[in-house]
Design brief:
Elements lengths: L15 H12 L4 E3 L23 E4 L11 E4 L1 H4 L15 H39 L3 E7 L2 E6 L10 H13 L5 E3 L3 E4 L7 H20 L2
Parallel strand pairs: 1-2
Antiparallel strand pairs: 2-3, 4-5, 5-7, 6-7
Helix pairs in contact: 3-5, 4-5
Length: 220
């Protein structure tokens, strides 16, 4: 994954993916990017890897590609795809016309403004979370691209130990306050709203998040 998903929404340092590309080229290794979660406009670019200008040999896509309908795709360089024998990649339900129509419509919408919305609203979202971080030492790091954001919660100690119990409490409190969240990694709250989300909706969610943080900290 160009940006790690369930492992904690970890964004690589600049130069990492380029170095990986160079290493693969040097040793004749195919570079495969899993863009199942991060692709299709989620990070404010069509693919997360575009933030670093690195192109893989093979890419996997799914999830956001169908806007809720089940579809996946393997995308690769022509030189690789032409090596497959005819029928080697065939399956009974592949290429379903309804899901393919949904994928085409999704791409039109993403290119037609939703990708730009993800970049713009995501920048606002990250800024609001970093403002919150200044008042809450338990927020160890805010990281992400576009609407692909993680807020890592830590203990108030020198080592910044991951605060897994606090993370669980925040997610639970948020649910009761009307905000649906998921965690990932050891103690990271993930924010992955629809690409249609507005600045006003983000601000409403931030108020719920602050309340949930206060309640979780008070209940420890």
């Amino acid at each position: 994954e160009p940006v790690q998903g369930d492992g904690g929404y970890l964004t690589p340092p600049d130069g990492f993916l380029a170095g990986l590309r160079a290493l693969c080229d040097e040793h004749g290794i195919l570079l495969i990017f899993d863009e199942v979660q991060s692709g299709i406009g989620r990070t404010g670019r069509m693919f997360a890897s575009e933030h670093w200008g690195v192109q893989p040999d093979i890419m996997s896509l799914a999830k956001g590609l169908g806007s809720g309908l089940p579809i996946g795709a393997v995308v690769a360089k022509r030189s690789l795809m032409q090596q497959w024998k005819r029928g080697a990649h065939g399956n009974t339900y592949g290429g379903n016309p309804v899901t393919c129509a949904a994928a085409n419509a999704t791409l039109d919408l993403v290119r037609g403004g939703l990708m730009d919305n993800a970049a713009r609203v995501g920048e606002h979202f990250i800024a609001r979370l970093r403002d919150l971080q200044r008042d809450y030492p338990c927020i160890g790091e805010v990281r992400g691209k576009g609407l692909w954001i993680g807020m890592e919660l830590v203990e108030n100690d020198a080592k910044k130990t991951p605060a897994a119990a606090l993370c669980d409490a925040v997610v639970t409190r948020a649910f009761h306050n009307g905000l649906l969240l998921l965690s990932c990694g050891t103690s990271t709250v993930r924010f992955m709203p629809p690409l249609t989300v507005t600045v006003a909706e983000v601000d409403e969610a931030m108020a719920m998040l602050k309340t949930s943080l206060d309640q979780a900290l008070a209940g420890r």
